[in-house]
Each structure stands twice: as C-alpha cells, then as structure tokens.
Write a structure and sequence with these properties.
- With 189 residues, the chain is an all-alpha fold.
- It has helices spanning 8-16, 20-42, 45-62, 73-93, 101-113, 120-139, 143-153, 159-166, 170-188.
- The longest helix is centred in the first third of the chain and has 23 residues, at 20-42.
- The termini are far apart.
Length: 189
C-alpha cells in the first residue's frame, strides 16, 4: 500500500485558517530536509536551526499569501526558507562598520590593561565585566531605542530594515540610534 502524498497546498490553506495542527504536520514533514538545505547555505548548525525556526513562523504568518499561481506549496516553503537563509548569510558576513568606536575602545582598553598575560580566568572575568557594563547600560535605554540598538549591532539590520520592522519613520530610527549611542557612551565612561 502506497502512502498518501503529503498535501502541502492543503496544509498551507489550513495554516492560513489558523489550524496549528497543520503547521505541526508541515514541520514534521519538512523540518529536517529544510535544515539540511539551510545547513548547506550557512554551514552553521545553530544559525541554520534559527533560520528554520524563523521560516516556520513566517510560513504561519504568511500562509494566506500563498497561491497556487506561485507554484507548488512545497516550492513556496523552500523558496521562503532559502531566502531567509540567504538573508542570514548576508547579515552574518556583513562587517558591522558602524560599530560604535567607544565599544571597541572599551574592549581594547580592557585588553591593554591585561597585557601582563593574566590567567584565562582573569581575562574571562574582565571580558564578563565589560559585557555586563555594556548590557547594563543598554538595559537603561527606553524599549524602542534598545530595540534599535540591538537590531543594528546584534542582528546586523540596516536602519531602513529597522524602520520597517518597527513601523517607524527612518528619520526617527536614525535619531534614536544616534541618541542611544551617545547615551551608551556616557553610561560607559
């Protein structure tokens, strides 16, 4: 007896109707193969797992936008996932040229202070204090400004992408980032 082929189009339509079981069935059907595809692109398992997770969230949110005119349901899922992987690859290889100089200077000064070659534990402790100070200062920022900083310097998003993500004008996002970096610099001094 031949197993019934999985109906991707029906699963996507069910997801669009809010059927969480359909999403689970899609996940069970394709997650391991999607992970393999994304691993070939990213060559980093943890990042690939994050992309596959994000892909299923996006599938859930955008299932209503799927149409047979776009091709097969399975093809749509793979295209969506592949695009997320390629975007992730682009951001993971992007040098963060706008890295705030004061953060780099702070890390360099910590390194210079430890030129006498302390043991590994001392270096880790100093690095931990530096990171704690930075994150402590970031925590003092207002919520949306904190998001801007984290999206820019942790996630690697551009200011345009952050504006779209937060649904805010680009000028506002630029201003928030500039003021937040100034606030962080003052906090760290």
């Amino acid at each position: 007896m031949t197993p019934t082929p999985f109906d991707y189009e029906d699963a996507l339509n069910s997801c669009a109707a809010g059927n969480k079981r359909a999403l689970m069935q899609l996940y069970e059907q394709e997650s391991s193969r999607l992970l393999t595809v994304v691993m070939r692109i990213l060559k980093n398992r943890a990042l690939a797992e994050d992309v596959v997770h994000d892909a299923f969230i996006k599938i859930w949110k955008n299932a209503a936008s799927y149409s047979v005119d776009l091709g097969s349901g399975r093809g749509w899922i793979y295209t969506l996932t592949r695009n997320l992987a390629l975007n992730s690859l682009k951001y993971s290889h992007r040098q963060v040229l706008a890295e705030p100089e004061f953060l780099l200077d702070l890390c360099d000064s910590q390194t210079l202070e430890s030129e006498h070659k302390p043991d590994d534990f001392s270096e880790l402790a100093a690095e931990s204090r530096t990171h704690s100070a930075i994150y402590g200062c970031i925590d003092h920022l207002e919520y949306e400004r904190k998001l801007c900083i984290l999206h820019a310097y942790v996630d690697g998003y551009t200011q345009d992408e952050i504006a779209t993500l937060l649904d805010k004008p680009l000028g506002t996002v630029k201003s928030w980032i500039k003021r937040s970096l100034h606030a962080l610099k003052e906090c760290l001094q």
